[in-house]
Design a protein that fits this description.
By secondary structure, this protein is an alpha/beta fold. It is 42% helix and 15% strand. The protein has 14 helices and 16 strands. Bound molecules: pyridoxal-5'-phosphate (PLP).
């Protein structure tokens, strides 16, 4: 075990992200992209965004990508462009970034929450029961949380059996596969985020809608640009949610070419944690069946929730940062409670357990083997 003093001497600070190391790696290419866009005089909706869209669509194996301002807008635009109108019910998870539900609310949708499964992702068999009991639910926004791919065959059969419009929130799961199938391909559209901490993070905000539905793509393109279908022609209200050319160029030149290598590093680290973390006071949640996960986060559950803070302090004393995803369920957030227009269909007991027991360990491409060893020793050294 490493005591805090020697940890200090060895400067073992294992952080949740290492943007300094990332800049060392991407800085020269990012700067060249910045320079090119600066000189081009074309800063919004130009060739850089189009290039990024082509690359994203081909990575995904879908015919179209529409880059937008951020991941939350991507969900909103995908929902509206697929026809969601105010008052429509949208089945979703209580355990996610608030942005997932906020996007639903912004188009006037009524979020309907059901519980999660042992992996922390929405429980698809419970979804089936909820959908059987309430045939007025026609939209579904599942979240591929933590970088896991939920069982896409099961999502597909829910979609077909209940005639659902599915928008997959892939903000944490770019590149994850379920039995060989890429997340995002079963839905009418996929939404992805390039928030800096995400597996493919930009040097700022960014997001994209991915789809093979041409009509949806046309509408989404108009919607990100005030709802303009042609210059100064507005057939519906849109947003201003365009991605800057400079961010598109940096993503395409400096970040996207490294995604596969960064993802393999995350998978290696996750495999080491899964093999070496052994504790009678912690549990590693199950990975969904058939998921080839991209490990945006590495969650563990503290068996005694009242000891969670102690665990995190113990890690911090050994130079290991940690996070919580998420400490409060979405339907317990004041903004939503005050709004009042949402439904909870079943007891959210498993989601509540995640909210009170989950701790996210550092997992990012710049962790060294020593960092990984330090995390493992520190986690295994905690006695509860
Ligand atoms: C980050 C995130 C979002 C929102 O993305 P932004 O780019 O921050 O708007 C939505 N859903 C999930 C699951 C996320 O992790």
């Amino acid at each position: 075990m490493i005591d805090p003093v020697s940890a200090d001497i060895r400067k073992l600070l294992v952080s949740l992200n290492d943007f300094g190391a990332q800049w060392d790696e991407v800085g020269s290419e990012a700067s060249a992209a910045f320079e090119r866009v600066g000189r081009s005089g074309r800063y919004i909706l130009g060739p850089e965004g189009e290039t990024l869209e082509r690359k994203l669509a081909s990575l995904w194996g879908l015919s179209e990508a529409i880059v937008v301002g951020n991941g939350m807008d991507a969900i909103e635009i995908a929902l509206r462009a697929s026809g969601l109108s105010p008052g429509a019910k949208v089945l979703t998870t209580p355990l996610s970034a608030f942005a997932t539900t906020l996007a639903i609310l912004r188009c006037g949708g009524i979020p309907v929450f059901t519980d999660v499964d042992d992996s922390g992702l929405i429980n698809l068999s419970e979804c089936r029961r909820v959908l059987e009991a309430d045939p007025s639910i026609r939209y579904f926004v599942p979240v591929h949380l933590y970088g896991h791919a939920m069982d896409l065959a099961a999502v597909e059969s829910l979609r077909d059996d209940f005639d659902l419009t599915v928008i997959e929130d892939c903000a944490q799961a770019i590149g994850a596969r379920s039995r060989g199938l890429m997340v995002g391909v079963v839905g009418r559209a996929a939404a992805v985020s390039f928030y800096p901490t995400k597996n493919l993070g930009a040097l700022g905000d960014g997001g994209a809608v991915l789809t093979s539905n041409h009509g949806l793509a046309v509408r989404a393109r108009a919607m990100r640009h005030y709802g303009q279908s042609a210059t100064y022609v507005h057939e519906e209200f849109g947003l201003n949610s365009r991605m800057d050319e400079v961010h598109a160029a940096i993503l395409a030149d400096a970040f996207l070419p490294r995604l596969i290598r960064w993802t393999s590093r995350r998978k290696c680290i996750a495999a080491r944690y899964q093999e070496a973390i052994q504790s009678s006071v912690l549990q590693i949640p199950a990975v969904p069946d058939g998921s080839d996960s991209v490990w945006h986060l590495f969650p563990v559950l503290v068996l005694q929730p009242e000891r969670r803070d102690h665990f995190r302090e113990y890690l911090a004393a050994r130079g290991v940062a940690s996070g919580i995803h998420y400490p409060r369920l979405i339907p317990e957030q004041k903004a939503l409670v005050d709004h009042g227009r949402y439904e909870i269909k079943v007891s959210l007991s498993r989601a509540t357990r995640f909210a009170s027991c989950e701790v996210s360990l550092p997992i990012h491409p710049y962790l060294s083997e020593d960092d990984v060893d330090n995390v493992i020793e520190s986690v295994n050294g905690w006695g509860g």
